[in-house]
Write a structure and sequence with these properties.
The complex is a heterodimer of chains A (668) and B (190). With 668 residues, chain A is mainly beta. Chain A contains five helices and 33 strands. In chain B, a hairpin with a 2-residue loop joins β3 and β4. Classes of the chains: A mainly beta (668), B alpha/beta (190).
Amino acid sequence: MARRTFARWIGPGCLLASRLLAQGTPEAPDLTALSIEQLMAIDVTSASKREEPLFRVPAAVFVITQDDLRRSGALSIPEALRMVPGMEVAQIDANKWEVSARGFNTRLSDKLLVLVDGRTVYTHIFSGVYWDTQDLMFEDVERIEVVRGPGATLWGANAVNGVINIITKSSRDTQGGLVVAGAGNLENAFGAVRYGGSAGDALTYRLFAKGFSRGDNRLPDGSAARDNWNSQHLGLRADWSAGSEAAVLQGDVYRVRTRERITELESVSLSAARLIDRDSEFHGGFGSLAWKHTFSERASASFAASYDVRMRDEVALRPHEEVLDLTFQHNLAIGRRQQVVWGLGYRRTTDDLPGSFSVSLTPERGKQTLASGYVQDDVTLVEDRLHAVAGVKVESYDGRSARYQPNFRLLWTPTARQTAWASYARALATPGRVDQAIRVNFDVFPGPGGTPVLVSVFGNPDLRQQEVVAYEAGYRIQATPSLSLDLAAFYNRYDELIAPVAGAPLFEPSPEPAHLVLPLRFENSGTGDTRGAELAASWNAAAGLRFRGAVTWLDMDLRFKDPEAGPAADTFGDGAELQASLRSSVDFAHDFGGDLTVYYVGHNPLEAVDTYWRVDLLGTWQPLAAFELAAGVRNLFDRRHLEVLDTTERIQPTLTPVSAYAKITWRF
Amino acid sequence: MAFLIRRLARAATLLAAVLAAIEIAPAESPSEPAPAPPLESQVRAAFVYNFAKFIDWPQSVSMTPDGVFVIGVLGDTPVLAALHALSGQEVKGRRLVVRQYQRPSEAACQVLYVGAGQIHAFAEAARSFRELPILTVGEGDEFLKAGGMIALVQIEGRVRYRIRAEPAETARLVISSKLLKLAERPAEQR
């Protein structure tokens, strides 16, 4: 309801999409051939943009449909994102992932924006996403849209390298009951219950509860890694519509517990760095209300408000964060050739970050405001052949002077089966609280005369926004009715990248003993460029046999502006040079389905992670419409690979074992 | 809240006027092929086309010369362009013709589509063609209150429809049970 992206003809209407793509756009699609039921299933919303088939979006877009999600066998969102070309997904331990788009991968990648139904879920503290508390009913997800590249004009802060928008189904489409239950060798147990009902004609709702308990990964010696993960979510969604008004109310509360092994410095004494097992507990929730008013077929406006509370009780840092987010958006068609969308946004984050010796923030309490406005116009230059999109976003944080983020796109449709697009965009990433105010006491070693030397990383309140100028181009072709290809390439120039730079040692009398501090201070010290290409292919080989492939190539060349500052290494985050995946789906007779997915992740030059393969297998059996059995084996043929070697937070990476699970789904 | 949204949106009208001013002039010239109407209009038009299959008109009455099936459109609506694209298709064994009317009194057709801006004009005239065998289709619940038979409504991004049976009965139109079954229930019920 709030900001939906390129809403399109996917989901239950896959057939419809292929039909539309095959037919092309010059002639209007023949809707008269559809039944009333099929017509009723077409999504005609024009929210963030007008309705557009995926084929004609002038950006690098990939959509995970509900069917993709179900047949991937993924049990968490990061696992599902592995299939997306251009995404870097690396598992750290049983409950943590590094997720980013087009490189720069760290646990809290600061260049990726993640939205759930238009609500920003990244934390301003780190400008990253805590994936350990992001969970929802996978059965109630309509689709996950991933736009690589800067989507800054429409989306918001941090959409520098990509935007992930998770869109859940309307409660109108989730009526009735649903029970999911399962268990496996790594999954101790997981389950979910949902009930959808209605009150009168205009109001529908659903309530859901979901929980799981995931066991430990392994350490190299085969012992349990003590990194288990427990999560409980309770949520609701209500949809109301009457005439030209529509509203969506959502809410969710959660409790999540995780464990991890982390190296932590407890004091200045020389033997103070210890590998400890850490228990963490997280609580939080949100409430949101989105309101949409439809003026006519050509214009609509929406307003959304949300309030998030996140409390993380970790040993070293206990962040408490509250986020108020207000957005307004107006879509309108002007004349016959222009589709305009403009909007305003305001976000206020307040936080309280009591720390410890190893991690602390100064000041402990903070407040950040982010005000933005944007306008984008989609102009038809030559009917059905050439479109131009021009947009600009103006953003100001903490009352600083506003900065512009322009965006130009051109879409050319030479024939009904081909499209080519190109774009130029500039985007900015706002420094997080940690970048501005943190102090991490990282390590201690003996210095001259036995004086301890403490290595500390310091935040910097004077940091400027990180910048990217992105040049992108793409080409899509429906080569045959059953084969389609989608190619995107980019060249990004970065500047003002944030990375720590060593400063002159200073003396610090307290805490005892008196010691020297070797400071590393966050500066806008980095620059450089990245380039890459992504290919997605889809082939419906025969009735009931589908192949989906993706290949990603990435080359990062980042460095300090001052060559004296040292080698860049993985200071800025990293990515594998080559990745590929192949998903094959077979539908056997009698409602049996089989899915085999192979992922290849090449050598990661910055982190020295070796090439690894991952194979997932899933079998499904649906004897009755209301009942489904699924069994999956994940990480098959595992050679106990690590996907991450080192994290900036010094969390110990662990090995994901071969895991098998079974699941039943019952609808009533 | 709707009020607030309306206020904010009104602020954009000025901007819209400026942008409209730079609209390339030839776009409006009739010689250039008209751009495809928005998807929603196409879907609405397809609904109208589909409805005809599920309605039986009284045998004895014909509002138009034999051989053609006329869908009339009242007022200016993007649905008109979408319907025009369907001209020439076959409906009930007859060739489909689409006509635009400026006033309800001009209507001589089997199906009359009433644009959102014409509801008042329609409501005023509804009484006069109550008994004519014309299927009236319009937009939003207001249309049913104004005496219309089928209202297309947008619910959750999908186009659905509501039916009021009495005016159709008065007009001696028979609506198939399938069409009735798939209809959204009128807002006032329950």
